[in-house]
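Next up, a chain.

===
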Amino acid sequence: MLCRDDIERFARVCRDVTATPLPSDRAYEGEIGTYNEKRMHMILKRFVCEDESTHEIPVGKRYIADILCDGEIYEIQTGSLLPLKKKLEYYIENTDYHVTVVHPVAVEKRKIWIDTESGESQPTRKSRGSVQDETAELVYISELIASGRVSVWLLLIGEEEYRFLDGWSRDKKRGSNRYERLPTEIFDEIALNATEDYAVLLPDGLPECFTAAEYAKAAKQRMGRRVYMALAALTNVGVLENAPKRGRASVWKRRTY
Protein backbone atom coordinates (compact mmCIF):
# COMPACT_ATOMS: atom_id res chain seq x y z
CA MET A 1 0.00 0.00 0.00
CA LEU A 2 1.44 3.34 -1.04
CA CYS A 3 1.79 6.08 1.53
CA ARG A 4 1.24 9.78 0.88
CA ASP A 5 5.00 10.37 0.61
CA ASP A 6 5.25 7.77 -2.19
CA ILE A 7 2.35 9.36 -4.09
CA GLU A 8 3.89 12.82 -3.75
CA ARG A 9 7.33 11.53 -4.75
CA PHE A 10 5.86 9.88 -7.85
CA ALA A 11 4.21 13.18 -8.83
CA ARG A 12 7.52 15.01 -8.36
CA VAL A 13 9.43 12.49 -10.47
CA CYS A 14 6.78 12.82 -13.20
CA ARG A 15 7.16 16.59 -13.21
CA ASP A 16 10.95 16.48 -13.24
CA VAL A 17 11.28 13.93 -16.04
CA THR A 18 8.52 15.44 -18.19
CA ALA A 19 10.16 18.87 -17.97
CA THR A 20 13.57 17.53 -18.98
CA PRO A 21 14.30 17.24 -22.74
CA LEU A 22 15.22 13.73 -23.82
CA PRO A 23 18.90 13.38 -24.77
CA SER A 24 19.40 12.88 -28.49
CA ASP A 25 21.22 9.61 -27.95
CA ARG A 26 20.15 7.19 -25.21
CA ALA A 27 21.03 3.94 -26.95
CA TYR A 28 23.25 1.04 -26.04
CA GLU A 29 24.51 -1.14 -28.86
CA GLY A 30 25.70 -4.72 -28.76
CA GLU A 31 24.29 -8.12 -27.91
CA ILE A 32 21.74 -6.54 -25.61
CA GLY A 33 20.22 -4.75 -28.63
CA THR A 34 19.39 -1.10 -29.05
CA TYR A 35 17.66 0.49 -26.09
CA ASN A 36 15.81 3.77 -26.53
CA GLU A 37 14.51 4.99 -23.18
CA LYS A 38 11.12 6.67 -23.12
CA ARG A 39 9.88 8.97 -20.37
CA MET A 40 7.52 6.33 -18.94
CA HIS A 41 10.51 4.05 -18.40
CA MET A 42 12.62 6.88 -16.96
CA ILE A 43 9.92 7.91 -14.50
CA LEU A 44 9.31 4.40 -13.20
CA LYS A 45 13.03 3.76 -12.88
CA ARG A 46 13.57 6.91 -10.83
CA PHE A 47 10.52 6.12 -8.71
CA VAL A 48 11.85 2.67 -7.85
CA CYS A 49 15.29 4.07 -7.01
CA GLU A 50 16.36 7.70 -7.33
CA ASP A 51 20.03 6.83 -6.82
CA GLU A 52 21.22 6.92 -10.43
CA SER A 53 24.47 5.13 -9.51
CA THR A 54 22.34 1.95 -9.32
CA HIS A 55 20.92 2.42 -12.82
CA GLU A 56 22.11 0.67 -16.00
CA ILE A 57 24.41 -1.85 -14.34
CA PRO A 58 26.05 -4.51 -16.57
CA VAL A 59 25.23 -8.06 -15.49
CA GLY A 60 27.46 -10.59 -17.19
CA LYS A 61 28.48 -9.95 -20.81
CA ARG A 62 25.05 -9.81 -22.40
CA TYR A 63 22.68 -7.62 -20.42
CA ILE A 64 22.33 -4.36 -18.55
CA ALA A 65 20.03 -4.32 -15.54
CA ASP A 66 17.73 -1.33 -15.22
CA ILE A 67 18.49 -1.19 -11.50
CA LEU A 68 20.83 -3.25 -9.33
CA CYS A 69 20.41 -2.29 -5.70
CA ASP A 70 21.14 -4.20 -2.47
CA GLY A 71 21.56 -7.50 -4.30
CA GLU A 72 18.23 -7.18 -6.16
CA ILE A 73 17.69 -6.56 -9.86
CA TYR A 74 14.71 -4.44 -10.89
CA GLU A 75 13.57 -4.57 -14.50
CA ILE A 76 11.14 -1.92 -15.70
CA GLN A 77 8.88 -3.30 -18.42
CA THR A 78 6.25 -0.87 -19.67
CA GLY A 79 5.01 -3.00 -22.59
CA SER A 80 4.58 -6.70 -23.24
CA LEU A 81 6.50 -8.99 -20.90
CA LEU A 82 7.49 -11.33 -23.74
CA PRO A 83 10.71 -9.46 -24.70
CA LEU A 84 11.86 -9.70 -21.08
CA LYS A 85 11.75 -13.50 -20.92
CA LYS A 86 15.25 -14.23 -22.28
CA LYS A 87 16.80 -11.60 -20.03
CA LEU A 88 15.15 -13.12 -16.95
CA GLU A 89 16.24 -16.60 -18.00
CA TYR A 90 19.82 -15.34 -18.26
CA TYR A 91 19.69 -13.86 -14.77
CA ILE A 92 18.31 -17.08 -13.30
CA GLU A 93 20.80 -19.33 -15.07
CA ASN A 94 23.91 -17.19 -14.61
CA THR A 95 23.48 -15.16 -11.41
CA ASP A 96 22.24 -15.50 -7.85
CA TYR A 97 20.17 -12.31 -7.99
CA HIS A 98 16.50 -12.18 -7.25
CA VAL A 99 14.62 -10.16 -9.89
CA THR A 100 11.59 -7.91 -9.49
CA VAL A 101 9.71 -6.99 -12.65
CA VAL A 102 8.12 -3.55 -12.37
CA HIS A 103 5.10 -3.23 -14.64
CA PRO A 104 2.65 -0.30 -14.90
CA VAL A 105 -1.09 -0.90 -15.17
CA ALA A 106 -3.11 2.03 -16.52
CA VAL A 107 -6.25 1.97 -14.39
CA GLU A 108 -7.10 5.44 -15.71
CA LYS A 109 -6.14 6.45 -19.24
CA ARG A 110 -6.61 9.30 -21.69
CA LYS A 111 -5.59 9.16 -25.35
CA ILE A 112 -4.38 12.35 -26.97
CA TRP A 113 -4.38 12.38 -30.76
CA ILE A 114 -1.81 14.51 -32.56
CA ASP A 115 -2.60 15.88 -36.02
CA THR A 116 0.53 15.28 -38.08
CA GLU A 117 -0.12 18.29 -40.32
CA SER A 118 -1.19 21.00 -37.87
CA GLY A 119 0.44 19.62 -34.72
CA GLU A 120 -2.79 20.19 -32.80
CA SER A 121 -3.73 17.72 -30.07
CA GLN A 122 -7.17 16.24 -29.50
CA PRO A 123 -7.69 14.71 -26.03
CA THR A 124 -10.34 12.06 -25.48
CA ARG A 125 -12.34 11.13 -22.40
CA LYS A 126 -10.66 9.11 -19.70
CA SER A 127 -11.17 5.34 -19.78
CA ARG A 128 -10.83 2.84 -16.95
CA GLY A 129 -8.71 -0.28 -16.71
CA SER A 130 -7.94 -3.01 -14.18
CA VAL A 131 -5.23 -5.46 -13.23
CA GLN A 132 -7.14 -8.14 -15.14
CA ASP A 133 -6.23 -6.25 -18.33
CA GLU A 134 -2.58 -7.19 -17.75
CA THR A 135 -2.90 -10.69 -16.27
CA ALA A 136 -2.49 -12.31 -19.68
CA GLU A 137 1.00 -10.79 -20.02
CA LEU A 138 2.21 -12.85 -17.06
CA VAL A 139 2.00 -16.02 -19.12
CA TYR A 140 5.31 -15.15 -20.78
CA ILE A 141 7.20 -15.23 -17.47
CA SER A 142 4.89 -17.39 -15.34
CA GLU A 143 7.21 -20.38 -15.28
CA LEU A 144 10.05 -18.13 -14.13
CA ILE A 145 7.79 -16.70 -11.42
CA ALA A 146 7.07 -20.26 -10.28
CA SER A 147 10.84 -20.79 -9.79
CA GLY A 148 10.75 -18.36 -6.87
CA ARG A 149 13.47 -16.18 -8.39
CA VAL A 150 11.16 -13.60 -9.99
CA SER A 151 8.61 -11.32 -8.36
CA VAL A 152 6.26 -8.80 -9.95
CA TRP A 153 5.50 -5.28 -8.75
CA LEU A 154 2.43 -3.75 -10.39
CA LEU A 155 2.09 0.02 -10.26
CA LEU A 156 -1.49 1.22 -10.77
CA ILE A 157 -1.21 4.54 -12.54
CA GLY A 158 -3.02 7.21 -14.48
CA GLU A 159 -1.66 7.57 -17.98
CA GLU A 160 -1.77 9.82 -21.04
CA GLU A 161 -1.05 8.13 -24.35
CA TYR A 162 -0.03 10.35 -27.26
CA ARG A 163 -0.69 8.94 -30.75
CA PHE A 164 -0.27 10.38 -34.23
CA LEU A 165 -3.29 10.60 -36.52
CA ASP A 166 -1.44 8.67 -39.23
CA GLY A 167 -3.38 5.40 -39.45
CA TRP A 168 -4.95 3.75 -42.47
CA SER A 169 -8.62 4.16 -41.47
CA ARG A 170 -10.81 7.10 -42.44
CA ASP A 171 -10.37 8.74 -39.04
CA LYS A 172 -6.62 7.87 -39.19
CA LYS A 173 -6.76 6.11 -35.80
CA ARG A 174 -6.56 2.43 -36.79
CA GLY A 175 -2.98 1.46 -37.44
CA SER A 176 -1.72 4.73 -35.95
CA ASN A 177 1.72 5.12 -34.39
CA ARG A 178 2.22 5.85 -30.73
CA TYR A 179 4.51 8.74 -29.87
CA GLU A 180 4.72 8.60 -26.11
CA ARG A 181 3.11 7.33 -22.90
CA LEU A 182 3.29 9.52 -19.83
CA PRO A 183 2.20 8.57 -16.31
CA THR A 184 0.25 11.33 -14.60
CA GLU A 185 -0.27 9.93 -11.11
CA ILE A 186 -0.07 6.74 -9.09
CA PHE A 187 -3.03 5.25 -7.23
CA ASP A 188 -1.75 2.05 -5.69
CA GLU A 189 0.69 -0.82 -5.94
CA ILE A 190 0.43 -4.61 -5.89
CA ALA A 191 3.47 -6.62 -4.79
CA LEU A 192 3.35 -10.20 -6.05
CA ASN A 193 5.95 -12.27 -4.22
CA ALA A 194 4.51 -15.51 -2.83
CA THR A 195 2.20 -17.77 -4.82
CA GLU A 196 -0.86 -16.78 -2.80
CA ASP A 197 -0.26 -13.10 -3.63
CA TYR A 198 -1.32 -13.75 -7.22
CA ALA A 199 -4.84 -14.62 -6.06
CA VAL A 200 -5.50 -10.86 -5.99
CA LEU A 201 -5.53 -10.98 -9.80
CA LEU A 202 -8.66 -13.12 -9.79
CA PRO A 203 -11.74 -11.00 -10.52
CA ASP A 204 -14.43 -10.49 -7.90
CA GLY A 205 -17.49 -12.69 -8.11
CA LEU A 206 -15.67 -15.70 -9.52
CA PRO A 207 -16.97 -19.05 -8.20
CA GLU A 208 -14.60 -21.70 -6.85
CA CYS A 209 -14.82 -23.64 -10.12
CA PHE A 210 -15.38 -21.83 -13.42
CA THR A 211 -15.03 -21.98 -17.18
CA ALA A 212 -13.11 -19.58 -19.41
CA ALA A 213 -16.37 -17.87 -20.34
CA GLU A 214 -17.24 -17.36 -16.67
CA TYR A 215 -13.78 -15.93 -16.01
CA ALA A 216 -14.13 -13.55 -18.97
CA LYS A 217 -17.49 -12.31 -17.71
CA ALA A 218 -16.23 -11.74 -14.15
CA ALA A 219 -13.08 -10.01 -15.42
CA LYS A 220 -15.08 -7.94 -17.92
CA GLN A 221 -12.84 -9.21 -20.70
CA ARG A 222 -13.73 -10.07 -24.25
CA MET A 223 -13.68 -13.84 -24.71
CA GLY A 224 -10.62 -14.80 -26.71
CA ARG A 225 -6.94 -15.68 -26.70
CA ARG A 226 -5.95 -13.34 -23.89
CA VAL A 227 -8.49 -14.94 -21.53
CA TYR A 228 -6.80 -18.31 -22.02
CA MET A 229 -3.38 -16.66 -21.62
CA ALA A 230 -4.48 -15.24 -18.26
CA LEU A 231 -5.80 -18.60 -17.12
CA ALA A 232 -2.57 -20.32 -18.18
CA ALA A 233 -0.52 -17.72 -16.29
CA LEU A 234 -2.54 -18.12 -13.10
CA THR A 235 -2.30 -21.90 -13.40
CA ASN A 236 1.48 -21.80 -13.94
CA VAL A 237 2.09 -19.62 -10.88
CA GLY A 238 -0.05 -21.95 -8.74
CA VAL A 239 -3.21 -19.90 -8.10
CA LEU A 240 -5.44 -22.16 -10.21
CA GLU A 241 -5.57 -25.84 -11.05
CA ASN A 242 -7.47 -27.82 -13.63
CA ALA A 243 -10.77 -29.40 -12.60
CA PRO A 244 -13.02 -31.98 -14.31
CA LYS A 245 -14.61 -30.68 -17.49
CA ARG A 246 -18.24 -29.66 -17.85
CA GLY A 247 -19.13 -31.45 -21.02
CA ARG A 248 -16.58 -30.12 -23.53
CA ALA A 249 -15.70 -26.99 -21.55
CA SER A 250 -12.45 -26.85 -19.57
CA VAL A 251 -12.82 -25.91 -15.92
CA TRP A 252 -10.41 -24.24 -13.52
CA LYS A 253 -10.47 -24.31 -9.73
CA ARG A 254 -9.01 -21.99 -7.12
CA ARG A 255 -6.18 -23.61 -5.18
CA THR A 256 -6.25 -23.47 -1.40
CA TYR A 257 -3.20 -22.78 0.74
